[in-house]
């Protein structure tokens, strides 16, 4: 049994990673400032360290933790993740996402923790036209959010080379679904929560363009169930404990799903129509973003097992 430190562990994805670690016989200690994370997502017996990564005392927090518990490594999920907000507040995103990663790397190394799983994103590829997108594809992020995710990868890679850490950067494609209502994504920016909200409120969800070069005219994305994503973190942790450093890995299904297909899947799952309206394209949207997920399958033996129906299922 290993214990991992989960920064951002009270977040939508982090809480699922804790759940997956425990299901695999491991455990996690959560470090979260609860600025967007929710303590209610955590099991009652989970250890929560309520701290800001930019807190000057971060090193002392980790030193105290490693005196009390044998920490196998860090899963660094804490970050700000809104693309439009990053455009409005770039320095806040660089400070928290890049500065927070640097602070975490320093504190982890000072505390003798030598393994680092970094939460990255498909946003590092920017407006790619390749389908599917492999890890070697040029990384040309088009938003401050994507830039901070890529800069964080560079910091992790270079620090690992300098200090001999084992590391991986998991590039999430479009994460969706939830194990329960409590664990659901509360952010109202990504497609699936917005479609669910349209069913619940009757307020139409906007479909950003139906004139794209795709089969039904709406954008394609690679949606991956958050439980599959969480299990990818467990597989990554195991690889790092074997002393491997897989580097950057795409986490997706290698399957493109359109906006209208997501809407139909929610209608099937909920047995009710999804009010929606076609509007103009959203600036910066690529027509297609689909992962080549062959490397993570080869390197970690991980493949997604859940489909769109599970992601769209109503949750109790
Ligand atoms: C998905 C699709 C929209 C809302 C971003 C980040 C990425 C990751 C996921 C963190 C697109 C369409 C959306 C709506 C719509 N985040 N859409 N109406 O933009 O693919 O990726 O979030 O890692 O890094 O870049 O996700 O959920 O915003 O959009 O038609 O009201 O749904 O055009 O095709 P996106 P999204």
Keywords for this entry:
UDP-galactose 4-epimerase, domain 1; 3-stranded mixed beta sheet; binds UDP-4-deoxy-4-formamido-beta-L-arabinopyranose; alpha/beta; 7-stranded parallel beta sheet; Rossmann fold; 2 domains; 38% helix; 316 residues; single chain; 14 strands; globular
Number of helices: 10
SSE string, helices as H and strands as E? EHEEHEHHEHEEHEEEHEEHEEHH
Domains, number: 2
Distance between the termini: 30 Å
* Low-pLDDT residue intervals, each spanning 5 or more residues: none
Q: In order across it, which strands form the biggest sheet?
A: 3-2-1-4-5-6-11
Secondary structure: helix percent = 25-40%
Strand content: 15-25%
- Heteromolecules bound: UDP-4-deoxy-4-formamido-beta-L-arabinopyranose
What is the assigned CATH homologous superfamily of the largest domain?
A: NAD(P)-binding Rossmann-like Domain
Give the averaged pLDDT, no decimals: 96
Structural class: alpha/beta
CATH topology of the largest domain: Rossmann fold
CATH architecture field of the largest domain = 3-Layer(aba) Sandwich
CATH class of the largest domain: Alpha Beta
Number of β-strand runs: 14
Report Rg: 19 Å
Main sheet characteristics: 7 strands, parallel
Estimate the global geometry from the Cα principal axes: globular
EC number: 5.1.3.2
Protein name: UDP-glucose 4-epimerase
Keywords: Carbohydrate metabolism, Isomerase, NAD
Pathway: Carbohydrate metabolism; galactose metabolism
């Amino acid at each position: 049994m290993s214990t991992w430190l989960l920064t951002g562990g009270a977040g939508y994805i982090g809480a699922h990673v804790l759940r997956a670690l425990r299901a695999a016989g491991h455990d996690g200690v959560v470090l979260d400032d609860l600025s967007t994370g929710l303590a209610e997502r955590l099991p009652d017996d989970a250890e929560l360290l309520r701290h800001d990564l930019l807190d000057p005392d971060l090193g002392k927090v980790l030193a105290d933790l490693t005196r009390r518990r044998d920490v196998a490594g860090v899963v660094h999920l804490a970050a700000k993740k809104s693309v439009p907000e990053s455009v409005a507040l770039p320095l806040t995103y660089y400070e928290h996402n890049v500065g927070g990663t640097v602070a975490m790397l320093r504190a982890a190394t000072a505390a003798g923790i030598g393994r680092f799983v970094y939460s990255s994103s498909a946003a590092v590829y920017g407006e790619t036209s390749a389908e599917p997108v492999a890890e070697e594809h040029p990384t040309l992020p088009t938003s401050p959010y994507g830039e901070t995710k890529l800069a964080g990868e560079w910091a992790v890679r270079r620090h690992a080379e300098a200090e001999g850490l084992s590391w991986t950067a998991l590039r999430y494609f479009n994460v969706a679904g939830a194990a329960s209502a409590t664990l659901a994504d509360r952010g109202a920016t990504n497609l699936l929560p917005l479609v669910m909200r349209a069913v619940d409120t009757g307020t139409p969800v906007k479909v950003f363009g139906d004139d794209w070069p795709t089969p039904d005219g709406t954008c394609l994305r690679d949606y991956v169930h958050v439980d599959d994503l969480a299990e990818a973190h467990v597989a990554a942790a195991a690889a790092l404990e074997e002393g491997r450093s897989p580097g950057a890995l795409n986490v997706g299904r290698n399957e493109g799903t359109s906006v209208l297909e997501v809407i139909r899947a929610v209608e099937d799952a909920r047995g009710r129509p999804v009010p929606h309206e076609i509007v103009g394209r959203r600036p910066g949207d690529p027509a297609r973003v689909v992962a080549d997920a062959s490397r993570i399958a080869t390197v970690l033996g991980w493949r997604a097992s859940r489909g769109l129906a599970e992601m769209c299922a109503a949750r109790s």
